[in-house]
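Now for our specimen.

. . .
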Amino acid sequence: MKTRLCFLLAALFLLAMPAFAQNAAELRSRMAQRLPGIDDLKARGAIGEDNRGFLAVRDEQNASAPAVVFSENADRTAVYTLIAKETGSTPDAVGKARAKQIAAASRAGVWVQDEGGAWKKK
């Protein structure tokens, strides 16, 4: 009985792997397509990187910023969830760790939020 259950779980996992890989590839593709627009919005100060690993609108005057932020954050949520499942962590912890990496790698002049919630230009 236990062997059958293990075999069944392994088979289900193997069947689900292509869906996870395809989903990850689709996420990467969408995020890569948005990146030039995100970089432009960051350079203009319209958006910034918050301390949870997500984009935030900094300038409400920019009409395209909210749509880009919404789409990117939806995909980041999915990525953080996938990573959390793989590592045994939580999406929140993954996002916060990613926020530190993003802030460290950001160009000068980009808005980033520190751990305490204060916004500053890098």
Summary: The chain has a mean pLDDT of 85. The helical segments are 2-43, 65-87, 91-105.
